[in-house]
Every structure is written in C-alpha cells, then in structure tokens.
Amino acid sequence: MAMLEFAGHGWCDTPPQGTRAWAAGAENTGVDATEPTVANDHRIVPLPVDSPQHAVDAVIRGRADWACVAIESSVEGPVTRTFDALAGSHPLQIYREIAIPIAFSILVRPGTRPQDIATWSAHPVARPQVTSWVDDHLPPAEFVAAHSNAAAAEMVARGEVDAAAAPARAGQLYGLDSLADGVADVAGAQTRFVLVGKPGKPTAHTGRDRTSVVFNVRNEPGALARTLTVVSSNGVDLTRIESRPTRKALGEYRFYMDMSGHISDPHVATALQHLHRTVQVLRFLGSWPIDDGPHVATTSGQAVASDTVTASDAVAPSSTMSPDKPSTATPDEWFTAQEWIAHRAKGTAPDTDVLW
C-alpha cells in the first residue's frame, strides 16, 4: 500500500496545512500539495490531524499509508508524544528522516500593531524557541498553547488570539500579516522529522544509517547496564537513549535507543539478537539513512528551507518504499525485521544474512 501507488491513500502529517511537518511533506516531494491537481497527479493526499498519536493512528487504521511526525528538536530535545505513539500496542516502523531548520514568523491579523498584542500562541515545543524574542519585542502577553503552529495561526485568523509564532506559509494560508520573519532564539535550530509506516522491509542500506529500537528491562539492579554492555560489546555506536514511563506503574519505564548502522550490518544484527535475549520486550523501530543535509539556503543571514530538496535525499516516500516483508535466504519464508530478530535470537531462523 505504498503512497505512490494508490490515489486514495496518502500520508498523514500531525498538524494542519502550513506547519513544519506538512511543509516537509510538500517540499520534499518537490510538489505543492495544496494544489489538488498536483496532489492527485503525484498520488499525494494530505490528511491533517492534530497530534503524533492521531497521525500514527491514521496509518494503523488504514486511512493513511505514512505519517510524517516530528521526533526531535535541537532546542527542546525529544518530542515525547511521538515516542509514546511509536510505542503503542500496534507495531510501526520508521523509513526516512529529515532535519529541517526551524525559524518562525510572528503572524497577526492585518492592521495589528505590536502594542495591540495581549495574547499569542504556538505549539508548546515551539514556545521556548521564540520566548526571548517575544519578551524583547512585544508587550507582556498571555501565552495560549495550540495543537500545532499552523493551528495557532488559524486561531489568530479566527480572532481567538492576537499573534502566533508559525511558519510564514501559514500566514499566506490564513491571510495574516507578519510582524517579523526568521525569528529563532537559537541560531541554527533544527527539528528532525521521521516517516512512519506499518512494519515491513527496512529502507535499503546506505552505509550511513540509523537503527532505532524501544525496549523494557526487568526492574532489577544492573538491568540497564547489562543492556548497554550488549550494544557496546558488539562494537555498535550508541547515539541516543531516552526513557519514557510505561504508564502502567510508577517507576516503570521503557527505553528508546538509537544506534549507528543498519540491521543488515552483521555487528548491528548480532547486537539486536543479543538485546532480544537480554531485555523483557524489544521492538524494532527501523533502519534508515541518516539525513546529512543541509536543507538550507542563506538569505540575508537567515536559514530557510531550500526549494531544491528532492525526494531522493529527503523524507518523502518513493515508489520502491512499500511496507513489504523482507525475505530470508529461504524464498518461502517471510519475516518482518522484528520477527527475524526474534527468530535469530531463539535460533529458529536460517543462520544466514537477511537479503535486504
């Protein structure tokens, strides 16, 4: 059910049109997804929702083939709602990523002056990225949280708040004026987005890949330390580990781990098999190319999203990316990557490399 194969399906981005996640989808396919004729020609059907959980739910329920969701900010760190969505009861897999420079416009209704602003809105993750600018350039104003930055712009258009920190494109969509563009408290701030689908064949090995898993360990002394030793003893570079509550019991956590390499790399595959034996529950979240960028062009010293980003080096799905099960050396046997790890750990899968 690849996105490029079915006109009736698309990919689901967490916010309304005009937000970063939606813009990533439109930009990286090289088309303007706001144009229905273009969207139909490219089999792209944006499905706006208001949270990462709703985005992945759309994939799980078959309303969308892909979800493009923010997973990490260079300013605020992990987007916890995305991590929680990925660890839900239904398995999901990451296929691509892209890191996009983040800067905001301060959007207002036409005729609004800075001194008229009493309320302003943005997504809570975006708020710390512009707070210093707002404090320095606007009068004291009440912050009102929005589901997304484009939703904040829509709130301005409806008269619910006076200003919004949002992408400039949102201002165009809602007929707003900009008091300032390129607003960012931290120069060079970026947000990393990932393309999520149902489990299947991992994205092809490139030599510069990222593999991600989520796991639970037993609540006993040294459990996490033993888990980390499994990774390091196999020569795998651990690049990130995060913890999130399981929501089942106080003090019970699950861990998200990123490592350098691809599941088809022997040392990574061996580490994953050993992890499966060591932890209580292990879920494979995917192996995919690391986005090196840069996806920026410089205009008057401001970093802006480049118009030259193409599908080949960005997050948009390609015609070769369909959640299709990978094969083992035995043509009649089919395993998802998750199943393959489990079978190899138990010694019940063919002792050969997976042919990805």
Automatic annotation (TrEMBL):
GO molecular-function terms, A-Z: prephenate dehydratase activity
CDD domains: ACT_CM-PDT, PBP2_Aa-PDT_like
The entry's keywords: Amino-acid biosynthesis, Aromatic amino acid biosynthesis, Lyase, Phenylalanine biosynthesis
Domain Prephenate dehydratase residues, every copy: 20-198
Example GO BP: L-phenylalanine biosynthetic process
Gene3D superfamilies: 3.30.70.260, Periplasmic binding protein-like II
The protein's Enzyme Commission number: 4.2.1.51
Pfam short name (any one): ACT
GO cellular component: cytoplasm
Pathway named in the protein's UniProt entry: Amino-acid biosynthesis; L-phenylalanine biosynthesis; phenylpyruvate from prephenate: step 1/1
Catalysed reaction, written as an equation: prephenate + H(+) = 3-phenylpyruvate + CO2 + H2O
Residue ranges occupied by any ACT domain in the UniProt entry: 212-289
Class of the enzyme per the UniProt entry, highest EC level: lyase
Source domain of life: Bacteria
Protein name: Prephenate dehydratase
Organism of derivation: Corynebacterium kroppenstedtii (strain DSM 44385 / JCM 11950 / CIP 105744 / CCUG 35717)
Lineage summary: Bacteria, Bacillati, Actinomycetota, Actinomycetes, Mycobacteriales
